[in-house]
Amino acid sequence: MSCIGTAGHVDHGKSTLVKALTGIDPDRLAEEKERGMTIDLGFAWLTLPSGREVSIVDVPGHESFIKNMLAGVGGIDAALLVIAADEGVMPQTREHLAILDLLRVPRGVVALTKADLVDEEWLELVREEIEELLKPTTLAGSAIIPVSAYTRQGLPQLVEQLERVLQEAEQRQNIGRPRLPIDRVFTMTGFGTVVTGTLLDGVFKVGQEVEVLPKGTKTRIRTLQTHRQQIESAQPGSRVAINIANVARGELERGNVVALPGQLRTTMLFDARITLLKDAERSLQHNTLVDVYSGSQEISARIRLLEGNELQPGQSGWAQVRLSEPAVLARRDRFILRIPSPSATIGGGEVVDVLPRYHRRLQPAVLENLERLSHGSPEELVLAALDRHAGTRTAVKGGVAAKAAVRIEGYELAEIVKQCNLARDVTFLTLTTLLSEKRVRHIGGEGEEGVWFAQHIWDVVEEETNRVLSDYHRQYPIRSGLAKEEWRARLGLSSKVASLIFPVLQAEGHVEVVTTTAVPASFTGTTSGAGGLIRLPGFTPRFSEKQQEQIERLLRRFRESPFTPPGRAEAEASVGTEVVAALIEQGRLVKLGDGILFLRETYDEAVNRLVAYLREHTKMTAAEARDILGATRKYILPLLEHMDALRITRRVGDERVLGIAAEARQSEML
Question: Which residues on neighbouring strands pair with residue 652, listed in sequence order?
Fold first, then answer.
């Protein structure tokens, strides 16, 4: 399916010609019929001699309705430039042609209408004028066909030329990411809300769940139509009417985009190469307010020039476009720039990156990267997508490594496809090639599943993990390891990415999980970790000789009064807070509650004796527990609460009974 868009000055006969070609009057509004002038977009279709169906978007020619014209020509395959033979080239002829050229519409046909009103000599003069006008544009060399909608002169030749140029057109790309820029919203009795537009980049099917951006309204495709015919699926490049479910007409407007849920994201900033028209009435200053037209969207924006402070007519340059509201764009989309007052088309450009970082101006590295994105091969585009948020690491200063400034991020295949605007199979093949060349890293799945990293970003993952853990071990030599969550935070990883990265780092020997007996496994039936700690392989906490001597003295005091040991404050006064924390972490001391510590072997003995008593007597009071151990309530109550928390015991009123952990352990022993 292909789509043709008309263009040309007001009253040059665009709508009349469309009706003569198709039998369909594209002027659908009562005001249009009363005034005899097209105001908004009109639609028709034509069956070519080969049997191929072609959609036609008819646009208004009056300068007051240029915004409506722009909403209709964004997705066309070819242009039908209409110029009246009796008037020749007029102001809107030039502006419409400039717009077609800026949008890089690659082919077209010129219909020289009202040819029956002039003689051959005049026709030849107009033809020469048109040929000269087309030379610097994408429509250079287009056929010029004199026609008359009233006598039907030249209509067969015009249809023949339209078929020829459409046969030369490249087939619309299906990259598995359908989007329909809405150019019309209306309701139909018995159906509800209907939206129309030209489908791009993928296929829509009846019954699919979709969302309408930028609001993100979720809905479903009830029916699809092309040329008033019901269809089950719509192909890229076709004019489509979508009957959507449970969305009121007032919730939608021209400029919205229908897409599959989660496939497209809105943006308020994009990188672009912009070009000013040679005959633009003014230069473009940095930070100028403009109106941006892309697809059927119209959004005001400011242009941040990245190469200088001013762009002269006829010049091109790199810019960041800062939008006033969210837009839906894709890489390689073309757009038009107009100044709002006095309203005039001044230029246009091509989107290079839809989710860029905020760039500093006049930076050679930024400009080089934009050039690479603009002209890159599939490999360069994929690598740029994987590297799009990377920064540089902060150097180590004064022996202390600063936090990494690198943003570590991996991407799923669908996200890379969106960023590159390549077909899914081409993107995956490119990734596979880069993987064999060790230029990318793939983790978390097989085939198309999983997450992809640029290899140098993955190298940063390994280097930063080693640095963070090395720094931690150096700063805290007696601690068993760093909390896994702190490692994630220091590297700036999302929880999802960290969960994929860590098993790979562990399997490849970059990190290991700390396993201790800080919480005894003898009654829980499990091996406990020390709060999710990780360390470098081979690292062992080491106390200094002085600390070791202090520890031995402290532990001796714990052994001398096993069930009435020193409190935590007293222990910390003897050996230091850091050492006590390390002894708890290593499982040599057991923390029971605020300020209460037991030597590990004392704790085990206490638990064993209390559990043995419960197995014999079924229940036990705190007083009985105190008598069993010869301790005081100060120590017994925290011990019993600790056992309750581990489900070794269970409190019933003022008594304890065996908990499920003790019972499970007994069953295993039997």
Answer: 655
CB neighbourhood size of 459 (10 A): 12
Q: DSSP string spanning 446-489? A: STT-SEEEEHHHHHHHHHHHHHHHHHHHHH-TTS--EEHHHHHH
Per DSSP, the residues of 78-97 read EEEEEEETTT-S-HHHHHHH
**In whole angstroms, what is the distance from residue 132 CA to residue 135 CA?**
5
For residues 83 and 68, give the distance between their C-alpha atoms in angstroms, rounded to a whole number.
19
Tell me the CB-side half-sphere exposure of residue 667, using CA atoms within 13 A: 9
Closest CA to 580 of 601, 595, 563: 595
- What is the SS3 assignment for 658? strand
Q: Half-sphere exposure (CA, 13 Å, Cβ side) for 641?
A: 11
pLDDT tens track for 365-376? 889 888 877 887
Could you tell me where the DSSP H helices lie in 529-567? 545-560
User: How does the average pLDDT of the chain come out, rounded?
Assistant: 85
CA quadruple 483, 484, 490, 495: dihedral positive or negative? Answer: negative
Q: What is the mean pLDDT of residues 374-385?
A: 82
Q: Which of 55, 37, 36 is nearest to 46 (CA)?
A: 55
Provide mean pLDDT across the span 255-284: 91
The half-sphere exposure of 568 on its side-chain side, counting CA atoms within 13 A, is 18
* The pLDDT of residue 30: 59
Other residues' Cβ atoms within 10 Å of the Cβ of residue 377: 10
Is residue 523's pLDDT more than 50? no
Residue 406 to residue 404: CA distance in whole angstroms = 5
pLDDT of residue 531: 46
How many Å is the Cα radius of gyration of the chain?
37
Residue whose entry in the numeric block shows the structure tokens 């010869």: 630
Domains defined along the chain, listed by start: 2-168 (3.40.50.300), 179-259 (2.40.30.10), 267-371 (2.40.30.10), 396-512 (1.10.10), 545-669 (1.10.10.10)
pLDDT at 528 over 50: no
Q: Name the band, by pLDDT with cuts 50, 70 and 90, for residue 595.
A: confident
Token pair of 616 as six digits: 């014999």
DSSP helix/strand/coil, 57 = strand
Residue 139: is its pLDDT beyond 70?
yes
Exposed e or buried b for every residue in 109-134, given b needs 16+ CB within 10 A? bbbbbbbbebeeeebeebbeebeebb
First to last CA, the chain: 75
Task: Name the percent of the chain lying above pLDDT 90.
Answer: 46
CA atoms within 13 A on the CB side of 559: 8
Distance of CA 657 to the CA centre of its chain: 55
Write the pLDDT tens digit of every residue in 178-232: 999 998 899 988 888 999 999 998 899 999 999 999 999 999 999 999 988 899 9
pLDDT value of position 402: 38
Rounded (5°) CA angle 469-470-476 = 85
Taken as a whole, the chain contains a residue count of 670
Return the SS3 of 668: helix
DSSP annotation of 51:
S
Q: Is-contact 649 640, C-beta < 8 A?
A: yes
